[in-house]
Structures are given as structure tokens and as C-alpha cells.
Amino acid sequence: MYFIYFAIIILVPIWAQIKVKRAYSKYSHVPSSSNLMGAEVARKILDANGLYHVNIEEVRGVLSDHYDPRTKTVRLSSGNFHGRSIAAAAVSAHECGHAIQDEEAYAFLRLRHTLVPVANIGSNFSWILIIIGMIAGMSGLLLLGIIFMAAAVLFQLVTLPVEFNASSRAMDQCVAVGVIRNDEERETRKVLNAAALTYVAAAAVAVLELVRLILIYTGMQSDD
């Protein structure tokens, strides 16, 4: 039983990463009909939504793309910043989706920002408390660790609607501003869906681990 459990929490994230890398690699070699660089796609979408104040910057790394709400900046990895592919357009549009969420005060995005400090504490300290609690047989300490971990899991769950909504906005914007044609929607959606799988996998594994720890805690309580 434990073998199956650990196989799931190890293999599911790996499978998700393989899916996103394959989709990105495939469609990064498929040029978009607009022939716009990712940075140009981002600027076009942002301007179409009145977000002239949002900057676009190039960052190092592969798929290191993100939106920074503190500085109102869309940051694109070099491959997507300069790329003229379906993948570059999809990723750039997705990050612009987050910028639009921020401008509209999208509820789940606001909630995720609020949870960041709590989630960071939960991620950093939960396992220390959990391990000490399990080794020392201290159910109270284990429970405290579970509570901290639950905060981190909640952050991951809230991230799901944020990411799916950003992808939905990305598709709508790509079509609305003419970045892709109708026959390119399928390929664009494949890139966005593959990226979303990584968040789904991470959330699923986190929930499974939280449930396992809760079961261990209830077992300790019944033994007392």
C-alpha cells in the first residue's frame, strides 16, 4: 500500500513535467501565423486591455515566465521573449492573463497573494514539526505541523483557479487581438493545458500527503 502511495506522489509530478516539456518543445518549433515575438504578443494584449503601465522584461531560464504584481511586470524567459512560435505566444498571453486578473482584482488572485506569507511559513516549518512530532510521539506537535502544512496546501489549491482562469483569458485574448487564427486554437490550448497539469499534479500530491499525515495523527490519538 505504501509502495503504491509513494509511487503516485513521485510519478505524477514527473509525468506532468514530461507532458509540459513535450508540449512546449513541440510547439516552440511551430511558428504562429502572426509571426509576433512573445514580447510583442504580450505588449499587444496588455495595450488592448489598457495596461500600458505594465512592463515587459526578459529573464533567464526556461519556462521561468511569470507576472510580478509588485512591480506590475510581465517577465518572459528568453525563448518566449524572442520566440515567434505558438508556444511563445501561449505562454506570453498566459502571463498577461495574470496582469489582467491583477488589474480587475480577481478574487482568487487576491486570496493567493494574502496566503503567500502563511504558505511560506507552512512550507518552511511544517516538516520540522511533523518529523519531530512523529519521532518523539508528540501528537500535539504533529498536529501543529499538519496545520502549517494545511496552509501551504490551501495556497496550492487556490492557485488552481488562478492558473486556469489566466489560461482561459489567454485564449480569449489571443483570438481577440488576432495573435492566432482559429485553426491555431487547438495547438495553443494544448500548450496551456499541459502547463496547467503541473499545478494540478502538485496540488493532488500535496492533498494526498496531508490526508496521510492526518491519518497518522488520528492513529496516534487512538493509541493514547
TrEMBL record:
Pfam families reported in the protein's UniProt record: Zn_peptidase_2
Keyword Translocase carried by entry: no
Keywords assigned: Membrane, Transmembrane, Transmembrane helix
Keyword Transmembrane helix annotated: yes
Organism domain of life: Bacteria
InterPro entries membership: Zn_peptidase_2
Transmembrane residue ranges: 127-155, 191-217
Protein name: Zn-dependent protease
Organism of this sequence: Bacillus benzoevorans
